[in-house]
């Protein structure tokens, strides 16, 4: 297993937690009232052989999610343990969904990058103001919900997850003429910052707002002692992939979900 990949995957479990989790022979079962596959899936990052067969362990996981009235989902990577798990799940009617690229960027020269970016944009950035809150608030949740067109349930589910997360966080909002136009969350785990929920309001897209916001967020992360930033982007999200490429992010591995097709 690539050690860097494992560190980033483990960090992802810490920076985006679950309301409930339990260890089953090395696998991490995560449940969070159904909001997002990331917080409601089995993470088979490690595997410890016991008297329980692999088939019995899969069945145990299925029973846990059925009891919680949630879909049965496994988060898969090329370094999932055991290595035969993806093939086995395929034979058990698990369908692949949501292939995602995990991307990493060094923050070593982020200050210099930001200065060059500001020089290239001239006065256009003067219209923007940036606000970072290090504690979540109902105001930030309301703004993010409006920009992302989330339901109240989604917004409150994120609030619950952030409430149980004790890691340093930045809830960043970009304002244009005092109007919130973009937002994101940055969460610090040791030397890494995970970036989540990057949102630009529909009416404000393709103006470079997300790029300016993420530069600001990465500078904050460096001030907190982080040396790398990582994020996740869907394989078909070409606009976001292009943005992250401009920012200097590079793919290090991919993950996908195996979702049980219930009969």
Automatic annotation (TrEMBL):
Pfam families per record: Rv0428c_C
Domain of life: Bacteria
N-acetyltransferase domain segment(s): 115-263
Keywords linked to the UniProt accession: Acyltransferase, Transferase
Keyword Cytoplasm: no
InterPro entries according to UniProt: Acyl_CoA_acyltransferase, GNAT_dom, Rv0428c-like_C, YpeA/RimI_acetyltransf
Family annotation (PROSITE patterns): GNAT
Cross-referenced CDD domains: NAT_SF
UniProt protein name: GNAT family N-acetyltransferase
Lineage: Bacteria, Bacillati, Bacillota, Bacilli, Bacillales
């Amino acid at each position: 297993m690539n050690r860097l990949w494992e560190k980033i995957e483990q960090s992802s479990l810490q920076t985006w937690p679950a309301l409930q989790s339990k260890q089953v022979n090395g696998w991490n079962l995560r449940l969070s009232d159904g909001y997002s596959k990331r917080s409601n899936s089995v993470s088979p990052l490690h595997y410890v052989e016991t008297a329980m067969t692999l088939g019995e362990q899969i069945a145990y996981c299925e029973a846990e999610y059925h009891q919680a009235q949630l879909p049965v989902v496994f988060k898969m990577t090329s370094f999932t343990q055991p290595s035969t798990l993806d093939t086995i799940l395929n034979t058990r009617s698990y369908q692949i969904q949501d292939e995602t690229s995990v991307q990493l960027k060094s923050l070593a020269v982020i200050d210099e990058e930001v200065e060059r970016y500001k020089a290239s944009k001239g006065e256009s950035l003067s219209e923007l103001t940036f606000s970072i809150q290090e504690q979540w608030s109902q105001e930030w949740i309301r703004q993010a919900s409006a920009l992302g067109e989330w339901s109240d349930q989604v917004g409150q589910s994120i609030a619950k997850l952030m409430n149980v997360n004790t890691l340093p966080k930045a809830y960043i909002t970009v304002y244009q003429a005092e109007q919130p136009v973009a937002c994101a969350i940055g969460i610090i785990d040791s030397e890494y910052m995970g970036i989540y929920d990057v949102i630009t309001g529909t009416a404000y897209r393709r103006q470079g707002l997300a790029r300016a916001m993420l530069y600001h967020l990465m500078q904050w992360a460096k001030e907190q002692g982080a040396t790398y930033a990582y994020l996740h982007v869907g394989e078909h999200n070409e606009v976001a992939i292009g943005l992250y490429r401009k920012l200097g992010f590079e793919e290090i591995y991919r993950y996908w979900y195996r979702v049980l097709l219930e009969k």
